[in-house]
Amino acid sequence: MANVDYQNSFILILLVCLFSTFFFLFVYFFKKPNNVSDLPPSPPSFPIIGHLHLFFSTSLHKSFQNLASKYGPFLHLRVFSLPFVLVSSASITYKIFKDHDVNISSHGPVGLDDCLVFGSSGFITAPYGDYWKFMKKLMTISVLGHQAMQRSQGVRVVEVERFYRNLFDKAMKKESVEIGEEATGLVMSILGKMCMGRCFSEDNNEEKVSKINAEFAALTQKIFLARMLCTPLEKIGISPFKKEVMDASNRYEELLESIIVKYEEKVDENDGNEGMDILLAACRGENAECKITRKNLKALLAELFFGAGDTSSTTTRWAMAEIINNPMIFERLREEIDSVVGKTRLIQETDLPKLPYLEAVIKESLRLHPPGVLLPRQFEQGCKIRGFYIPKGTTLVINAYAVMRDPDAWKDPDEFKPERFLGQEEEKKENVLKFLPFGAGRRGCPGSNLSYIFIGTAIGVMEQCFD
Questions:
Q1: What is the distance between the alpha carbons of residues 304 and 445, in angstroms, rounded to a whole number?
Q2: Is position 199 annotated in a ligand binding site?
Q3: Parallel, antiparallel, or unpaired: how do β-strands 82-87 and 74-79 relate?
Q4: 77 DSSP β-pair partners
Q5: What sign results for the dihedral spanned by CA atoms 61, 65, 70, 75?
Q6: pTM
Q7: Over the stretch 173-232, which tens digit does the pLDDT of each residue have?
Q8: Domain chopping of the chain, boundaries
Q9: I want to staple 238 with a disulfide (CB 3.0 to 4.6 A). Which of 144, 204, 233, 453 is the partner?
Q10: Cα dihedral: 285, 288, 291, 293 (round 10)
Q11: DSSP track, 408-436
């Protein structure tokens, strides 16, 4: 009899534990947010996991675009208890950046803290505040600002000429040209020398950095998912993609450390005006508003190399593909370049402001093939948008791919028409907050002007060289 009572007690305790566990999971992962009736519409979801299944797609931006076409351009999603707002409309995006830019000035969860690119040590995902402002200022002074650009203009002229000679040699040998690879080589060589001078060209560093950048480009969607889903999944012991991403990150950090060490060893050969000298001074705390660590320095370089390098090479490849597929655009672009530059010299970056059609071609390529297809932010405070309540801490995901193909905002959105960017000033102003290849607002990419220079000169040289 005592044995039976013991068994019954054990079963009762087991049932209580199981019930408590399921109750906890239900309350923690499936709880309804406040003001649920005021939230944006939501597609059907599964118990507990919510819309987790929607995040695992080979082309997440296209999957989200299809979701928006079925359920609407302003959606509320939930992964376990984590709330998301998905925006696929140009008009709603315009409204958010116009009225709530400060409120969405944070990129939200980092996900992989130790990752060199998009980790907590970097600039891109840093919370909006003094550190982020200092890092942006540091990047501007060392590489992207007006004085820094003037200081490094000679480097870009030399590298563009080298780029031309390489293309010309291949043409004479009747060798094929891999446009993305050539553009990547040009950008890496320029960026490296802008930051570190001739030292960067040693040990084949351009190729090494380009190779790891390509790995990170292939991991972009996994890094996005790790950032978005880290909070709920880590609570149940899952760290998605961490090993794969951190392996690439550790190798990137080792490579950059070796490059920096060699630069420091040759300090007497440097003129003190390289971007790296400014960054190292800040790292040592010399007259710096905010002391940064060695890891902060490497993260800044990695984000600069990856951001500018991948964006410029990918956009150049897409732009040339579109130009080649549209002979009339090719001819019009050639005529504009010949009329401004002539046929006796190479295009230079100082020519770019006089080439509006080339700029339009670049912008149209970026519109159709944006380098950053999904833009994550976080609402720091609860607010109302279009009559819907958005709770504090909600992750905002703007589908830039869908926004820049929104038929309500762009005529013939899937067609390559550079002319749409040749409108009057009012039309250009209207395009600003719905044209999102580099993000928008105060957290927009600070290197967009440099990318335009890289892309414009690369396309211009190829236009001049080949029929």
A1: 10
A2: no
A3: antiparallel
A4: 84
A5: positive
A6: 0.87
A7: 888 888 888 999 999 999 998 888 877 888 888 999 999 998 988 888 888 887 777 766
A8: 1-29, 45-465
A9: 233
A10: -70
A11: TTSSSTTS--GGGGSS-HHHHHHHTTT--
